[in-house]
Amino acid sequence: MSANAAIAFEQAIAQGERARDIAGRIDNQRLSATKAAELAALDGPFIRPGHSEQGRPSGSAYILPAAGQVVAGFSELNVNGYRERGIRLAVYQAARIVAPAGGTISFAGRYRSYGNIVIIEHGKGWNSLITNLDSVEVAKSQKIDQGALLGRAGKNGPEIGVELRKNGRVMDIAAMLG
Fold first, then answer.
1. Pair 63, 178: CB distance under 8 Å
2. Which of 14, 71, 81, 130 has its CA 20 to 30 A from that of 158?
3. What separation in angstroms does the CA of 178 have from each of 66, 158, 175?
4. pLDDT at 52 > cutoff 60
């Protein structure tokens, strides 16, 4: 009886986690659509005179940091059984990685198993996290425009991760892309 109770307990926990994931996805989709509409209504960043190395306005509130193939999408199960909190892109070797939106760099450097990462604060609770860069070309507290160079992808199996958050909650990037 004790073994059966333990199995039933584990099944109940798993069902609760699935329900929580479903409710979270519903909330994220609703919030993403609302925020995408708000962001789309905003003017994009513009180049300041004398800053030609900075990005140029794309007409989109949010862009992908590099061209590449989507390896894993938002909320997909990865090989470890966890849900992706952003997207992962397979990019070209040493590809330029650019800012998906303008803001201020709050972190740039090596972080645990994520390799070199860059965190950009966009304002009003929005921030982006780009992981697994081979090199970083920005520094903490630096202000950047959308499309500005953040760094380069690696040379061996280059794959980067991109997460968008609003007040700490992960958001679906697809709803923000132009």
1. yes
2. 81
3. 14, 24, 8
4. no
